[in-house]
């Protein structure tokens, strides 16, 4: 790759959303969740998406993550048009390029912390030795090296979300999508999770899109995008 190509990649946004629309239902009962949303997520940054309940945040996150398909418009991730992919293509993209962190943690109760972190790599067919080394590295990164053998029920909410962050990083994604990752945590634990996300964006060289309604957590973001009634209200930063 030439120096010119490297420079072009560095300034190209990780996520490009153009005139994105999503409607549910039909006729008089149609609900327009997104009404022509356009914005970008810059490479190597943590972008916070804010908005009241019903503003369309989760719908937008699902579309950016390839979990849903839009009624109209496009989503590009690292130069790939998600809206042009079939289901198998979106599945491969989610597995290889995106890490998800959910409000409810989403851990498998019967597996240990280490086993939960290793699940995405098992699905990708990563060799056992390489997988185990990556799991150790990630649990240390999120401060849970000593809790590798504990199951979710033996961990606090904050610790479970740290495991979820480690799992999201397992396959070295280009983008982390976190939908209200602190919603079930107390304020101090929530701040620690947001600081962790801020730290891993820097240390792992990845990009993050985080939906939150907490003003204190937004202060830790590089940029804030507001969604209001299915439209972008403002972008700051």
UniProtKB/TrEMBL annotation:
<dbReference type="InterPro" id="IPR017911">
    <property type="entry name" value="MacB-like_ATP-bd"/>
</dbReference>
<dbReference type="GO" id="GO:0016887">
    <property type="term" value="F:ATP hydrolysis activity"/>
</dbReference>
<dbReference type="InterPro" id="IPR015854">
    <property type="entry name" value="ABC_transpr_LolD-like"/>
</dbReference>
<dbReference type="Pfam" id="PF00005">
    <property type="entry name" value="ABC_tran"/>
</dbReference>
<dbReference type="GO" id="GO:0098796">
    <property type="term" value="C:membrane protein complex"/>
</dbReference>
<keyword id="KW-0067">ATP-binding</keyword>
<dbReference type="InterPro" id="IPR017871">
    <property type="entry name" value="ABC_transporter-like_CS"/>
</dbReference>
<protein>
    <submittedName>
        <fullName>ABC transporter ATP-binding protein YtrE</fullName>
    </submittedName>
</protein>
<dbReference type="GO" id="GO:0005524">
    <property type="term" value="F:ATP binding"/>
</dbReference>
<dbReference type="InterPro" id="IPR003439">
    <property type="entry name" value="ABC_transporter-like_ATP-bd"/>
</dbReference>
<dbReference type="InterPro" id="IPR027417">
    <property type="entry name" value="P-loop_NTPase"/>
</dbReference>
<keyword id="KW-0547">Nucleotide-binding</keyword>
<keyword id="KW-0813">Transport</keyword>
<dbReference type="GO" id="GO:0022857">
    <property type="term" value="F:transmembrane transporter activity"/>
</dbReference>
<dbReference type="InterPro" id="IPR003593">
    <property type="entry name" value="AAA+_ATPase"/>
</dbReference>
<dbReference type="GO" id="GO:0005886">
    <property type="term" value="C:plasma membrane"/>
</dbReference>
């Amino acid at each position: 790759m030439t120096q010119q190509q490297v420079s072009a990649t560095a300034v190209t946004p990780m996520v490009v959303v153009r005139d994105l629309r999503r409607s549910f239902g039909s006729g008089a009962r149609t609900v327009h969740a997104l009404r022509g949303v356009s914005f970008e997520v810059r490479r190597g940054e943590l972008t916070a998406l804010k908005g009241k309940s019903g503003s369309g945040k989760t719908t937008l996150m699902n579309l950016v993550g390839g979990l849903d398909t839009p009624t109209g418009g496009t989503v590009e991730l690292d130069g790939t048009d998600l809206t042009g992919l079939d289901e198998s293509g979106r599945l491969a993209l989610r597995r290889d390029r995106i890490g998800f962190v959910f409000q409810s943690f989403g851990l498998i109760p019967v597996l240990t912390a280490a086993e939960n972190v290793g699940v995405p790599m098992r699905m990708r067919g990563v060799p056992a030795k390489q997988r185990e080394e990556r799991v150790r590295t990630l649990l240390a990164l999120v401060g849970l090296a000593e809790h590798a053998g504990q199951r979710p029920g033996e961990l606090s909410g904050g610790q479970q979300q740290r495991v979820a962050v480690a799992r999201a990083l397992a396959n070295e994604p280009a983008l982390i999508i976190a939908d209200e990752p602190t919603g079930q945590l107390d304020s101090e634990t929530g701040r620690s999770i947001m600081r962790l996300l801020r730290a891993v964006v820097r240390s792992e060289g990845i990009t993050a899109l985080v939906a939150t309604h907490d003003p204190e957590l937004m202060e830790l973001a590089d940029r804030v995008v507001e969604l209001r009634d299915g439209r972008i209200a403002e972008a700051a930063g």
